[in-house]
Design brief:
The complex is a heterodimer of chains A (about 140) and B (about 400).
Chain A: H1 4-15, H2 21-34, E1 48-50, E2 55-63, E3 66-73, H3 76-89, H4 94-99, H5 104-107, H6 122-137
Antiparallel strand pairs in A: 1-2, 2-3
Chain B: H1 11-15, E1 24-25, E2 28-29, E3 31-32, H2 43-56, H3 66-86, E4 94-97, H4 100-115, E5 121-125, H5 134-143, E6 146-150, H6 160-166, E7 171-177, H7 189-198, E8 202-206, H8 218-221, E9 225-229, E10 240-244, H9 246-251, E11 262-265, E12 270-272, H10 286-300, H11 304-323, E13 328-331, E14 340-345, H12 350-359, E15 362-363, E16 365-367, H13 372-378, E17 383-387, H14 394-411
Parallel strand pairs in B: 3-15, 5-6, 5-7, 7-8, 8-9
Antiparallel strand pairs in B: 1-2, 4-10, 9-10, 11-12, 13-14, 14-17, 16-17
Helix pairs in contact in B: 2-10, 3-10, 4-5, 12-14
Classes of the chains: A alpha+beta (about 140), B alpha/beta (about 400).
């Protein structure tokens, strides 16, 4: 299993192939459509991250010392970015998740989606993913 | 001071006054359809701010030196200009605030303190912005008063019969929006004001979205209070206006304490200044005030009849084009409507539409527009909203439609 660092580099390389924004967003949209949905039973109030614009649901399970994330959003572009986050962070150790520096979003030119003015729930989602990392370190 | 009315409304000429309209966004010509959030500013407004800080800056109402006197005179002249622009009876009926929200909070607090008690009722409508809901909820809770909500129909129009049914001797305040920021509905505020006043209630009108579409005559509407923000009226941010009938403003207690609003202060007792200063504690946004004057000069020389015809044609053209899209639903189809179009597209989140359209240079607003109860009324989470100002064009609507078609194709 590759490290968070390697997976970030993979994503950056993948995105470097896109020549214009259309290709990039079409890819994001397709990722959003492919993202395995979170179980309906996990789409509960305590798992919801409310943005002003879109909503995000996030669930985390600890298995064999690794965190497995599932998530969903009602907006497809937000969901596409979530798919990238999960690809990079899921199945890693709580410590790695808590300590990681997520630089890939910036490098693939999607930084604007993490701006607080977007209030799409993504910034809070990353914080929550890291909080799970910290919380699960005690259990791992 | 007043300039001649520009010969006839000509959108291409008008656009030259707004330099931002010729910039590009993401490599495409900017199409700015988020005027409901804030309007763009003509050159003269930006220039007035710059000139003020470079040549005139000084605090007002408190200096004997030349600069302070000049700044005070300039600032107070703007109050007179505003009085004339709104056709108010007295210049001290114009209170400068930070904006619409500030004005509503001022009235909710000052009126509520003295005139609301347990069992009293405040009436608002189902299409209010959060800023005309929350201040009333707060003061009603404090005073044990009840907040009543006028329902609306599926077109997004106020149910006048239901309104009449809600009015009673318990009604102390009716606070309603003139034009809905989300739906574009123009409410019959003159008629609603008269109905409230027959029952002895006082009326506040939230004019944030109405002032950009035509000059308002506050005496004709007849409400005790009328509030709006300059930044939606082609003026600076951080300046708002609270118009209030003199007898009401005189009777209400001050909102905030501080400098400028006092006559004498001792540790035992303070006497308050006269209107309008009683409600203007602290150093105001002087540069904003001066720029407000520049905005009013600009507005005064516009051909408003021509503007209204132009905005109506934009609304008709945009509505017709949008209705051709399969699966698109317009939210807000009132018979009396300003140039605002909110819509939802089946199976597509408004956020996604907004993101893709931005990539094509088109600025629209997405989300609940600070009207969550209204969204609940329509059973939706949010809409995309195109709101037009007089400087927008049909060609821009064409670019907007092209971006929308592309976005729908990508997102479906």
């Amino acid at each position: 299993m590759s490290s968070i660092k390697e997976r970030q580099e993979e994503v950056v390389e993948e995105f470097s192939m896109f020549e214009d924004w259309m290709d990039k967003y079409e890819y994001l949209i397709s990722l959003g459509k492919e993202l395995p949905l979170i179980e309906e039973s996990k789409k509960v109030e305590e798992n919801i991250i409310k943005g002003c614009q879109s909503r995000v649901w996030l669930d985390a399970q600890l298995q064999d010392g690794k965190i497995y994330f599932t998530a969903d959003s009602d907006a497809i572009i937000t969901k596409g970015i979530i798919a990238l986050m999960i690809r990079v962070l899921s199945e890693s150790s709580p410590k790695d998740i808590a300590e990681t520096d997520l630089h890939f979003v910036d490098e693939i030119g999607l930084k604007e989606h993490l701006s607080p003015t977007r209030s799409n729930g993504l910034v809070s989602m990353i914080k929550k993913m890291k909080t799970y990392g910290i919380a699960f370190q005690a259990k791992a | 001071m007043s300039q001649a009315v520009r010969q006839k409304f000509n959108v291409e000429e008008i656009r030259k006054d707004f330099p931002i309209l010729s910039r590009k966004v993401n490599g495409k010509p900017l199409v700015y359809f988020d005027n409901g959030a804030t309007s763009q500013k003509p050159d003269v407004v930006a220039d007035a701010i710059s000139l003020y800080y470079k040549h005139e800056n000084s605090n007002i109402h408190r200096g004997v030196h030349t600069l302070s006197q000049e700044a005070t005179t300039a600032y107070e002249q703007v109050r007179e200009k505003m009085q004339q622009y709104l056709s108010a009876e007295h210049k001290e009926e114009i209170i400068f605030t930070k904006g619409t929200t500030d004005g509503i909070n001022l009235i909710a607090s000052s009126f509520g303190k003295h005139h609301l008690k347990e069992g009293d009722e405040v009436i608002i409508s189902a299409m209010e912005h959060h800023s005309n809901i929350v201040p009333w909820q707060m003061i009603c809770e404090e005073k044990g008063a009840t907040l009543k909500v006028i329902p609306i129909n599926d077109q997004g129009e106020i149910d006048l019969e239901a309104y009449k049914g809600l009015l009673s001797s318990r009604t102390k305040m009716v606070s309603i929006v003139h034009i809905s920021n989300t739906l574009g509905t123009i409410n019959p505020v003159k008629e609603m004001t008269a109905l409230a006043q027959e029952k002895g209630a006082v009326v506040l009108i939230d004019g944030a979205q109405s002032v950009p579409h035509k000059p308002i005559n506050v005496q004709e509407i007849g409400a005790e209070f009328y509030v709006f923000s300059m930044h939606k009226l082609f003026g600076p941010t951080g300046v708002g206006v609270l118009y209030g009938k003199k007898e009401w403003l005189d009777a209400l207690p001050p909102y905030q304490g501080g400098g400028d609003m006092i006559k004498t202060v001792t540790f035992e007792r303070t006497t308050y200044n006269e209107l309008p200063h009683k409600f203007e504690a602290g150093t105001p946004n002087i540069a904003g005030g001066i720029a407000t004057g520049a905005a009013l000069d600009y507005l005064n020389q516009l051909d408003w009849e021509g503007i209204q015809l132009h905005e109506q044609s934009l609304l008709d053209y945009g509505t017709e084009k949008l209705k051709q899209i399969e699966g698109l639903r317009i939210i807000g189809e009132a018979a009396q409507k300003a140039s605002v179009i909110s819509f939802v597209v089946d199976g597509i989140h408004a956020y996604d539409l907004g993101v893709i359209m931005d990539k094509m240079g088109v600025a629209v607003r997405t989300g609940h527009h600070c009207t969550q109860p209204l969204m609940n009324r329509f059973g939706i989470l949010g809409t995309a909203r195109a709101s037009f100002a007089f400087y927008n064009t049909k060609e821009e609507i064409d670019q907007f439609m092209e971006a929308l078609h592309r976005a729908i194709k990508m997102l479906k």
